[in-house]
Amino acid sequence: MCQCQNNGTCDHIYGNCTCPAGFHGPCCEEACPFGFYGLQCQEVCHCEKQCYCDHVTGSCNVTDAPVAKELFMKGLLMLIAKKGGEKKQK
């Protein structure tokens, strides 16, 4: 049985959560890491001067910048993992 968070929807047949934009993880428990946004956190933020980007919409918001070292590292690891998966598929 699903225990989806952040308004994720449950597939009651397979027990998987489908996450809304801005969230990922088995139960949609994690917001997109720093530098990413959107469905499955696949969109890359394009904010100037490394400003915070909204994890749902990708909009840039200078006044809402988190202390970002941990979020930045998560984003970097996600990007590295994505690039590694692309190389394996070739």
Give the tags.
EGF; EGF-like domain-containing protein; two-stranded antiparallel sheet; globular; EGF-like domain; two-stranded antiparallel ribbon; 90 residues; alpha+beta; 6 strands; MEGF10/SREC1/2-like
Model description:
It comes from Staurois parvus. The protein is an alpha+beta fold. Helices cover 23% and strands 16% of the residues. The chain contains one helix and six strands. It has one helix at 69-89, and strands at residues 9-11, 16-18, 23-24, 30-31, 36-37, 43-44. The chain has a two-stranded antiparallel sheet. The longest helix is centred in the C-terminal third of the chain and has 21 residues, at 69-89. The radius of gyration is 14 Å and the shape is globular.
Write the layout of secondary structure elements.
Blueprint (H helix, E strand, L loop, with lengths): L8 E3 L4 E3 L4 E2 L5 E2 L4 E2 L5 E2 L24 H21 L1
Antiparallel strand pairs: 1-2, 3-4, 5-6
Give a quick precis of the structure.
By secondary structure, the chain is an alpha+beta fold. It has one helix at 69-89, and strands spanning 9-11, 16-18, 23-24, 30-31, 36-37, 43-44. The protein is built from 1 helix and 6 strands; from the N terminus they run E-E-E-E-E-E-H.
